[in-house]
Amino acid sequence: MQHIAIQLKDEAGTIALGAALARVLTPGLTLYLHGDLGAGKTALTRALLHAAGYAGHVKSPTYTLVEPYTIALHDHMVEVMHFDLYRMLSADDFLDAGFREYFNSDNICIVEWPEKADGVLPPADLDVFLTLAGDGRKVELVAHSDQGFQCLDQLHFAPNM
Length: 161
Ligand code: ADP
Ligand code: MG
What we know:
By secondary structure, the protein is an alpha/beta fold. 24% of the residues lie in helices and 30% in strands. It contains 4 helices and 7 strands, in the order E-H-E-H-E-E-H-E-E-E-H. It has a 7-stranded mixed beta sheet. Adenosine-5'-diphosphate (ADP) binds next to helix 1, helix 2 and strand 7.
C-alpha cells in the first residue's frame, strides 16, 4: 500500500496510531514527520516509543536536535533516533554533526522538520503528514520504498471515530 489517510479525533487517536506504527516498525526504517508546531509530531513519536516498550520520559529534542532511544524489536535491540531539526540553522550543521551516519540499516530514524535538512537528509521510507482538522488531526502516510510499503500493508489501525 502506498497511501493511507486517517482521522484522529483526539489525542487517544494519536496514541493508538503510535502503537499501530510501533507494531510494524522494522530496523533501518526512516520516517519523516511533517506538520506545523503543535500538529502532534512529538506526541506521535512518544506514543510510538512507549508502545515499543520504552518506559522513560520522551521529550522533544528541540535543543539537542536528536535523542536516542533503545527498544526491543522481535527480541533484537534497536536504536530509535528521534530528530527535531526545527532549530537547526543550516543543512551543513546536519553534516557537521555526523547525523547522516545514524541513517543506516540498523537504526530507526524519526525526523521532525525534515525540511530543515533539505538536500542532505537521507530519503524517507515513510512520510507522515499531520494537519489540524477541527479539534483533531488528519494524518496521511505515504510510502516511498519497499520497506515503507510493507509497513503500510501491515498497519492495522482502527480509528476511534
Ligand atoms: P509537534 O511536535 O508537532 O510540534 P506536539 O506533539 O508537541 O506537536 O504537540 C501536539 C499537541 O496536540 C499536544 O498538545 C497534544 O496533546 C495534542 N494532540 C495530539 N494529537 C492530537 C489529536 N489527535 N487531536 C487533538 N489534539 C492532539
Ligand atoms: Mg515536536
